[in-house]
Amino acid sequence: MATGTEDVILAPRPKRRVSRTLMILGIVGGVGIVGCCGMGLIFNNVMNPSLVNQPEQVQEELAKVMELNVPEGFTPDSAQSMDNFLFLMRAIFYRQQDGRGWLRIFQFQPRAIGPDIGKKPTPFEAALEQVDSNYPQLEPLNAPEEQIVKRLIGNREVPIRILEGEAMTSRTRYVQITARFPGKVGDIDIKFQIEANLWNDEKTAALIDQIK
Asked: What transmembrane ranges does the database entry give (predicted)?
């Protein structure tokens, strides 16, 4: 029988051990959270368009797309571009100095989003519609008749459409020239619109000759 002077030896408490599985899950979860946040920031950066409006910057963007002598009286307005793993897109705008006409050059090349074949609307058309919706200055025209000039560009026969008509939102009469053709990278779509009393057939021919 133990006396009061004897020391009582207590059994040590077992140490709590963190399950190896929980440790692994915790590490993976932490890395996942950091990775998701990081990927979110990266995705946000690559999907935000680059916008410029300085004349020399707009000219630089145009030079990346095609060689074009912009019609007299038109000045650089703005340009936006996106170049990422999904697609390459550039949209360049020039405006007539008195605001009586616009020129839009659009370039698009799908990448990871796949080819245009079988998709309605195609990625090209969807992107172009979004760009044009932000520039209502390019007015739809009520012009049932159009002149079509066909030109072989690369290995594709390209129709260049020329029409004259009244804007659907006003009584202003415009001349409009549109074309979609293969460029150095991806396809290019041009839309040119100017008040009819500022334009003539000679200027139309000069602009069309540059589409090649």
From this structure: 22-43
Same domain? 87 vs 185: yes
Q: Which domain holds residue 100?
A: 53-208
Position of tokens 């090349």? 109
Amino acid symbol at 157: E
Number of domains in the chain: 2
Q: Residues 61, 76: contact at Cβ < 8 Å?
A: no
Same domain, 28 and 111: no
Give this prediction's pTM. 0.73
